[in-house]
Amino acid sequence: MGAIEELVSSADDSDRIFVDIPIGLPNGPEGRLCDREARKRLRGRRAATVFPAPVRAALAADTYDDANRISREETGKGMTRQTFAILPRIREVDGLLRKSEKARHMVREVHPEICFWALAGGSPLSNRKKTDGGFHERLALLEGFRPSVGEEFARIRTGFRCWDVADDDILDAMAAAITASTDPAALRTLPEHPTMDSRGLPMEMVYVEDLSPHTGESDE
């Protein structure tokens, strides 16, 4: 049993699990509308953080060369190394969602930079996340919604080696957690009306709209 399957198995039916993993995969060169919408919102250099989701056929590949070949055959473009690196996780999540109704009910896709963009009131952040400026910019933004974030970050940091989990990975997860913990009525998707892929999985990215700083709740 994979990590995501164990998490879903132990979760209550009312829980939400938001993951930075593509859910809903294209079959051809058209790609996903949610990826294009995300790049529009982030603009400039932040837009480059949205990697193209692989085509479904590439999930069968065991090597980068095979995945790259399949991608070129299906889309006319190769697969990035970054995308290939997470292909096992994409395959794991995809397999779980296709067989588990419980998982489909609670597991949804987010993109960290879209989460930060939304928490910042619909503005892309100024600094790259792996810079000191980017770290402090993101930490300060999250503390506006959850003042204990700094202490929680320090506690998590001591539990993992830096080469296993980077500082920005922890902040990304916190942004996703804040998004997942909000009032469901405040959740929105890119695009507004998601389409389904050939396996019936939504091609969307979830974010939160109009979240009030310091409360973690939406304005009424």
3D structure, described in words:
- It is globular and about 50 Å long.
- It has a domain of 145 residues.
- It has 220 residues and is an alpha+beta fold.
- 46% of the residues lie in helices and 12% in strands.
- The strands form three sheets. The chain has a two-stranded parallel sheet.
Give the key terms.
220 residues, alpha+beta, two-stranded antiparallel sheet, 12% strand
In short:
This protein has ten helices and six strands. The protein is of the alpha+beta class.
Strand content: 5-15%
Count the strands?
Answer: 6
Helices and strands: which structural class? alpha+beta
Separate helix tally: 10
Task: Note the main sheet.
Answer: 2 strands, parallel
Distance between the termini: 41 Å
| Poorly predicted parts | 215-220
Enumerate the strands of the largest sheet in spatial order, edge to edge or round the barrel: 1-2
Helix coverage percent? 40-55%
Spatial extent as radius of gyration? 17 Å
Order of helices and strands: HEHHHHHEHHHHEEEE
The average pLDDT score comes to 93
What would the principal axes of the Cα set say about the shape? globular
Set out the fold topology.
Elements lengths: L2 H8 L6 E3 L13 H10 L21 H12 L5 H5 L1 H13 L1 H6 E3 L2 H8 L12 H14 L3 H11 L7 H14 L6 E10 L5 E7 L2 E2 L4 E2 L2
Parallel strand pairs: 1-2
Antiparallel strand pairs: 3-4, 5-6
Helix pairs in contact: 7-10, 8-10, 9-10
